[in-house]
Amino acid sequence: MLDRITFDPTTMGGRACIRGMRMTVSQIVNLVANEMSFQEILDEYPFLEADDIREALHYAAYLSREEVLSAGDVRR
Question: What does pTM read for this prediction?
């Protein structure tokens, strides 16, 4: 499913990285959020592939999914 996202405690403190490199998912998401196009990112970071960017965005979307609970679902 997400075979390009790796976690290694010796690389970037174990944060989600792309293919074991020192490029974190959050770095890629930040570039996209700051309006860099896929092509601009690939030009700036030639070791990346378009699929790396797509997978980083999919992973970020997965992490930020919202689950709405009704008042009756919340236990005190």
Answer: 0.82
pLDDT truncated to tens, each residue of the chain (76 aa)? 789 999 999 999 999 999 999 999 999 999 999 999 999 999 999 999 999 999 999 999 999 987 776 666 655 5
- Domain hosting residue 55, numbered range: 5-73
How many domains does the structure of the chain reveal?
1
CA distance 18 to 15: 10
CATH of the domain at 55: 1.10.10.10
For the chain, how far is it from start to end, CA to CA, in angstroms? 36
Q: Beta-carbon neighbour count of residue 52 at 10 Å?
A: 22
Q: Are 49 and 41 a contacting pair, CB within 8 Å?
A: no
